[in-house]
Design a protein that fits this description.
The protein has 13 helices and no strands. By secondary structure, it is mainly α.
């Protein structure tokens, strides 16, 4: 890495970029396996199984207490994360990858507000600028789909409103989870915080899945494993980013996942971005750059 970038960009930014890429690849795998008839809850189960193994191995490597210190908040983080994950996965399987990611990435707005009220974190001017530019970018990207059909500007694809609601609900759930994670970083190691997520989501998803299990082929099973691996990468990067910076500051960089998702959707799923997608993505990147360099 060039010395200029290493000295200019905070470590929390690099962690968040790694997290965003991990989550984008995870979403692509989720969308891919769902096209083979795998239920959303089964994907959640597979993700949890892989993450439990990886998290357990990491905790043992660090020689930490498996169950952590602040158990009530750790359990709360697991519960919020479990239901948020179900909402996000459902949105990803129904909506185009870029659009699902865009809607879910309203969470930095929720995070900034929640962090202000519950963590007493100041909302810096650069963060406000980033949020404004990013929300403007989000509006530009989805605005044609919200126009009446008779205007001639509406998208040819009519999106599922339940999936849109699930994506927005996932965004709110993500923000709540981030606030809990930020609180937990004062008492527990990141590996323990991550461990509670799959430990709690696994039994919940198994109960809800019931008899709807679908036996995957070997290739689909491999993609399910990748869902867990990429999610683990995203979780580790996110948790370390929150440990390195204010919650509202660190999560603002996560908007770049929108760009990753648009590229992956284009290359692997034939979801060709429109001009509004490019314009909105440019505003989102500009907001991220302002947030990175603003405090300097």
């Amino acid at each position: 890495m060039p010395t200029f970038l290493r000295n200019t960009v905070p470590i929390s930014v690099w962690y968040m970029l790694i997290s965003a890429l991990g989550f984008a690849l995870m979403a692509a795998c989720v969308k891919g396996v769902s096209s083979h008839g795998i239920p959303v809850l089964e994907i959640v189960v597979a993700r949890a199984l892989v993450s439990v193994v990886l998290s357990y191995a990491d905790i043992k490597r660090k020689k930490l207490s498996l169950w952590g210190n602040n158990k009530p908040w750790l359990i709360a983080r697991g519960l919020v994360g479990a239901f948020t994950l179900m909402l996000v996965y459902y949105a990803v399987t129904v909506l185009p990858l870029a659009e699902a990611t865009i809607l879910q990435y309203l969470h930095p707005v929720f995070t900034a507000v929640l962090a202000f009220y519950f963590l007493k974190e100041a909302i810096h001017r650069s963060t406000i600028i980033c949020i404004v530019l990013s929300l403007l970018g989000l509006w530009v990207m989805i605005q044609p789909n919200l126009m009446p059909a008779h205007t001639g500007l509406a998208s040819a694809v009519q999106y599922n409103w339940l999936a849109i609601g699930a994506a927005i609900g996932g965004a709110l759930g993500s923000a709540i989870a981030y606030i809990i994670v930020k609180k937990l970083t004062a008492t527990d190691d990141s590996s323990v915080i991550i461990f509670y997520f799959p430990v709690i989501s696994l039994p919940i998803a198994l109960v809800l899945l019931g008899r709807d299990f679908v036996m995957p082929s070997l290739g689909v099973a491999g993609a399910l494993v990748l869902v867990g691996i990429f999610t683990q990468v995203g979780q580790v990067g996110l948790t370390k980013a929150l440990h390195s910076a204010d919650a509202n500051k660190a999560t603002a960089y996560a908007y770049v996942q929108v760009i990753f998702a648009a590229v992956i959707g284009w290359v692997y799923f034939g979801e060709i971005p429109t001009l509004t997608t490019f314009a909105g993505g440019g505003l989102i990147l500009l907001g991220a750059m302002v947030n990175v360099l603003g405090r300097r």
